[in-house]
């Protein structure tokens, strides 16, 4: 089955580009120094250098949480379009039918690319070796639930389809070493172009930094988010129940429950339980990612492959630390899900450039296909952003849709559950949002919950809901209709069953 453009397959293109896709976990755009919204103390010299060598995207919405974000990277589809994907068995167990849910790296293999994936795997017990990947060295969380909390050491690693073997050492450093080995020629045909997906487990909870970084950023003091405690004016009813921080004896916010708990993680902070302590620990965990990016780029330069390699750095989604009361992702607000995204390729992408046009995670796969000169094998939900990479001021007519459908995928999202026990994920119900220019529209998929509208230019913290301001009524209606149009364009069957929105507070 041929997917390449006629006369432009990877084999007969004179010099098809390599693609290096560096993908971190739960890493907010606030953790990268070149982003204006990062804290003053943040130091990420290597990621900043990558931005100087290419283009920084100001507003990237890659996904809403780990598993669907990765599934979108592999299919080019929003969560509701990923057929047969399902969570099954002991968490984080998951499965899919590769006939119903093909992953596009297999198409790159058919068109002459060597494909490799290193690091965290979170999308089905079947990791696709031999079908999607020529080489893998992965921590397959769904396949080893008992090991799924070991984000930073003692991981069961699968190498090229073999049984998992226990590997010690700090995972961020291990993944970097294995990526460099591949770049330097290991596990691949030197005469073929390659696609490498490096998936760091950092900086996911328990947010454990490398030993060498545990004294970094002393005396961190961050501003307390204005709406860290409820009530939160203008927010839906479910947002009034988000209560993950409480006042400590000194009046400073501390994490409720005396530590961080998730399905596979239960830990107390290294430095303490205050908001400042957790933000410090989280940013210390980013430091090894930054060093890893630096080392990988050095290897790319030293091997003489830099000029012909498209490099993309991003994260599955962001992470909230106190904003709107959160200590997690999932919610439709920038503080919890907005990611960094930097793209670089010498001579192709302008240096030191910034693109203020919002982009989506589902835009990444079509862009890779465009750079590789291969036709899309199926309809994808995103758009090739090559025009923006050529000129960040290009007029762009595509709004960014984001959705959260809990643990449900594909046809299981056709009908929206009314039962919160089925629908809600860590207290967050299903929702859809649309980012168009400086405005973000949010619709909670629960009967009679209010719509939300934010002017991100004048209210970047999303504190003032404009949806029921008479001056913004027509804009709210227009974005509501645009959201429905985008759901229809991407074949979301739930669009025919959207619950009624609230008419006031």
Short description:
The chain has 505 residues and is α/β, with parallel strands linked by helices.
Overall morphology: globular
Strand content: 15-25%
**What is the arithmetic mean of pLDDT?**
95
Treating each run of at least 4 consecutive H or I residues as one helix, how many helices? 10
Say what the CATH topology of one domain is: Arylsulfatase, C-terminal domain
Terminus-to-terminus distance: 55 Å
Percent range of helical residues: 10-25%
Could you explain how this protein is built, in words?
Residues 1-12 have low confidence and may be disordered. The chain has a domain at 400-497: Arylsulfatase, C-terminal domain (2-Layer Sandwich), CATH 3.30.1120. The chain has a ten-stranded mixed beta sheet, with helices on both faces. The protein contains ten helices and 22 strands. It is globular and about 60 Å long. Strand 8 (155-159) and strand 9 form a beta hairpin. The chain has helices at residues 45-52, 66-75, 105-110, 171-183, 275-302, 334-337, 364-372, 386-390, 420-423, 473-489, and strands spanning 18-24, 55-57, 60-61, 86-87, 94-95, 114-121, 135-140, 155-159, 165-167, 194-199, 245-247, 253-255, 260-261, 266-267, 309-315, 341-344, 353-355, 359-360, 400-404, 431-436, 439-444, 452-455.
């Amino acid at each position: 089955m041929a997917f390449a453009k006629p006369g432009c397959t990877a084999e007969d293109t004179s010099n098809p580009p390599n693609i290096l896709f560096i993908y971190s976990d739960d890493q907010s755009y606030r953790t990268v120094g070149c982003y204006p919204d990062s804290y003053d103390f943040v130091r990420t010299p290597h990621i900043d250098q990558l931005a100087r060598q290419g283009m920084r995207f100001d507003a990237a919405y890659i996904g809403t949480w780990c598993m669907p974000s990765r599934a979108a990277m592999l299919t080019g589809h929003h969560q509701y379009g990923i057929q047969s994907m399902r969570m099954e068995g002991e968490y984080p167990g998951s499965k899919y039918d590769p006939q119903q849910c093909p992953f596009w790296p297999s198409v790159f293999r058919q068109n002459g690319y060597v494909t490799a994936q290193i690091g965290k795997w979170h999308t089905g017990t079947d990791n696709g070796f031999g079908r999607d990947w020529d080489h893998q060295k992965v921590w397959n969380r769904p396949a080893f639930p008992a090991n799924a909390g070991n984000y930073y050491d003692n991981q069961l690693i699968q190498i090229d389809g073999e049984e998992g073997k226990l590997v010690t050492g700090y995972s961020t450093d291990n993944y970097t070493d294995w990526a460099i080995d591949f770049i330097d020629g290991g596990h691949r045909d030197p005469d073929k172009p390659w696609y490498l997906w490096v998936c760091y487990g950092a900086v996911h909870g328990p947010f454990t930094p490398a030993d060498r970084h545990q004294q970094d950023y002393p005396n961190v003091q961050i501003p307390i988010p204005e709406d860290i405690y409820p009530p939160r004016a203008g927010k839906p009813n479910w947002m009034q129940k988000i209560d993950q921080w409480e006042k400590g004896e000194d009046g400073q916010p501390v994490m409720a429950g005396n530590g961080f708990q998730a399905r596979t993680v239960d830990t107390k902070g290294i430095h303490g339980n205050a908001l400042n302590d957790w933000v410090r620990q989280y940013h210390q965990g980013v430091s090894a990612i930054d060093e890893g990016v630096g080392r990988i780029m050095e290897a790319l330069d030293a091997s003489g492959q830099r000029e012909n390699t498209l490099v993309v750095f991003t994260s599955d989604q962001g992470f909230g630390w106190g904003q709107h009361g959160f200590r997690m992702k999932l919610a439709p607000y920038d503080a919890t899900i907005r990611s960094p995204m930097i793209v670089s390729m010498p001579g192709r992408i302008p240096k030191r450039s910034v693109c203020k046009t919002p982009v989506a995670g589902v835009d990444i796969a079509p862009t890779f296909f465009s750079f590789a000169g291969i036709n899309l094998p199926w309809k994808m939900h995103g758009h090739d952003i090559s025009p923006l990479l050529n000129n960040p001021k290009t007029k762009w007519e595509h709004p960014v849709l984001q959705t959260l459908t809990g643990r449900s995928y594909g046809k299981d999202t056709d009908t929206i559950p009314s039962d919160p026990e089925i629908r809600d994920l860590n207290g967050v119900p299903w929702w859809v949002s649309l980012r168009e220019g400086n405005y973000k529209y949010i619709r909670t998929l629960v009967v009679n919950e209010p719509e939300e509208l934010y002017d991100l230019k004048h209210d970047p913290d999303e504190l003032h809901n404009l949806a029921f301001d008479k001056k913004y009524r027509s804009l709210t209606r227009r974005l509501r209709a645009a959201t429905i149009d985008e759901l229809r364009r991407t074949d979301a069957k739930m669009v025919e069953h959207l619950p009624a929105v609230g008419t006031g507070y």
